Amino acid sequence: MNILEIRGVSKSYGKVHALRNVDLTVRRGEMVSIVGPSGSGKSTLLQIAGTLDRPTSGTVRVAGHDVSVLSDSELSALRARYIGFVFQQFHLSPGSSALDNVADGLLYSGLSRRQRRDRAAAALDRVGLGNRLAHRPHQLSGGQMQRVAVARAVAGEPPLLLADEPTGNLDSEAGAEVMSLFRKLNAGGVTIAIITHDSEVAMACPRRIRVRDGLVRSEVS
Ligand code: ADP
Asked: Which of left, alpha, beta for 38 (phi over 0: left; psi -120 to 50: alpha)?
């Protein structure tokens, strides 16, 4: 079963061709890195795969759903169900506890407040932060903040996790912890795609997607 199917996707910003006729399939259970020089189209690819942006042409299917036929609200619902995101900047709300940061990620899940908080606590436990529920971001290390962001991304149990430079703001030890967390989630069945400039992160993934000048090629180690 393919969690992601990208067919003939191009994305242009005026005269800039960020993606050129890209075909890419990611199967359920894969862990792939997305590598390539700055400006090659990696973030554009991730944004389009994550349905945060629409292609200029071509089709994107997430878990078999053609996203081009969905309205913005249907797209939000699809994202909430299927996709979790992790970014280089952790994007945590500074005034909120770890628990609230994760629980707020479930606001559109249809769960009650109590259920959201229970799920959030379970997700924080999964990332090894079960003893930091009441901590605010400034009371946590960078690695811990990123783990809160990962907990938020997986609290709704999406099958697909998309990460844009998740270790880019971390020292090597914290980066290794986040990668070990990703491996654990992947072993539990979550499909993961990670944009990275870090060759160790790239090599830790069984498959690499190389992006260059908006073109994509895949290699398996
Ligand atoms: P990468 O993630 O590999 O650094 P990007 O996907 O961010 O590459 O960018 C690919 C190309 O598209 C670059 O030339 C970039 O300047 C351009 N680009 C990306 N987003 C926009 C945008 N919102 N408006 C205009 N150009 C953009």
From this structure: beta
Pocket test for ligand 1, best of 16, 19, 34, 197 (most atoms within 8 A of CB): 16
pLDDT digits (tens, 9 = 90+) for 35-87: 999 999 999 999 999 999 999 999 999 999 999 999 999 999 999 999 999 99
- Answer whether residue 221 shows pLDDT above 90: no
- Domain that residue 107 falls in: 2-220
**Ligand 1 binding pocket includes 110 (Cβ within 6 Å):** no
Q: What is the pTM of this model?
A: 0.96
3-state helix, strand, coil in the chain (%, to 5): 35, 30, 35
> What CATH number corresponds to the domain at position 174?
3.40.50.300
Number of structural domains, the chain? 1
